[in-house]
Design goal:
Elements lengths: L1 H30 L1 E13 L6 E4 L4 E10 H11 L3 E5 L10 E6 H4 L4 H4 L4 E6 L2 E19 L4 E9 L2 E7 L11 E5 L2 H4 L6 E10 L12 E3 L2 E10 L6 E5 L6 H4 L12 E5 L1
Parallel strand pairs: 1-4, 7-10
Antiparallel strand pairs: 1-3, 2-7, 3-6, 5-7, 7-9, 8-13, 9-12, 10-11, 11-13, 14-15
Length: 273
């Protein structure tokens, strides 16, 4: 009996040592610094959109190599996969003054909240850098002009609101015209579905003038929709003629002394609307 009693404390000690060793192993495994790759989407944005805009403003894909404990890396790759990380100008690694820059993405991510809160750090990025332009912006009041091509209107055409706020790069401001304006545009195809001779009221989107069409992504209109009210007097229809023969016309007396011919490649006009 005494021999059995002597084994019990020994077995208990072995069990305690084994549990402690196992816990230490798990803790060490969790603290060992490792690396893992994750694909994210990034976007560089101005800290104050009323004063600056950044080109390009679209999101782009980045492959990050992260460093941290195994546990933190597992959590980070799970939460960051497919996530968009927005880095704003003025933070470390990203300038805030107007100009052209090449950003080191790893450096810009050093103190990114999306990573630090997860206990991991970015040690490399692919691509390693991205070029941006920071442009100074201005905000102006612009009149809303109603544009409905291809139809005849009667009476007064009203837009509500009559003016909106337009924020755009300072270098593009002249594209709004000498009297700044935007267009409340209703496509001809949509207008042609409306009955003629009646008053109509519709919500439509606002767009920049034609001179700014290519830079429309750099323009912010607030609000970006308006309600237009108008009377449709008559509608129009459009047809496309695949081939239209070209004929020579003129007074007979003028043609008597000439022989006029048309090149074979020019005998027809194609796709005449």
């Amino acid at each position: 009996m005494n021999g059995m009693s002597g084994w019990r404390p020994m077995l208990a000690n072995v069990a305690v040592v084994s549990v402690v060793s196992l816990l230490l192993w798990f803790w060490a495994a969790g603290q060992t610094r490792e690396t893992a790759a994750v694909s994210v989407t990034m976007r560089i944005a101005p800290s104050d959109p009323e004063r600056a805009t950044i080109v390009p403003g679209d999101a782009f894909s980045v492959e990050l190599e992260l460093q941290g404990s195994r546990r933190d890396l597992e959590r980070a790759t799970d939460r960051l996969g497919g996530k968009t990380i927005v880095l704003k100008s003025g933070r470390p690694g990203i300038p805030s003054l107007p100009g052209s820059y090449v950003l080191d993405l790893t450096n810009a991510l050093v103190r990114a909240d999306e990573l630090t809160t997860l206990g991991v750090a970015a040690i490399s990025a692919t691509p390693a850098s991205v070029s941006i332009d920071i442009l100074e912006t201005v905000t102006v009041d612009a009149k809303v002009l109603v544009t409905i091509p291809g139809v005849q209107l009667a009476g007064e055409t009203v837009a509500e609101p009559q003016t909106v706020r337009v924020t755009l790069a300072k270098s593009l401001a002249s594209g709004l015209g000498t009297e700044p304006h935007v267009e409340a545009f209703l496509p001809t195809a949509q207008a042609n579905t409306l009955p003629a001779g009646r008053r109509h009221s519709l919500d439509v989107g606002l767009r920049v003038p034609e001179a700014l069409t290519k830079e429309a992504s750099l323009v912010r209109i607030t609000p970006d929709r308006a309600r237009i009210t108008f009377t449709l007097q008559s509608r129009s229809s459009t047809a496309v003629l695949r081939l239209v023969p070209v004929q020579v016309a003129g007074p007979p007396a003028d043609l008597d002394g000439f022989s006029v011919s048309i090149n074979r490649d020019d005998e027809f006009l194609r796709d005449v609307e």
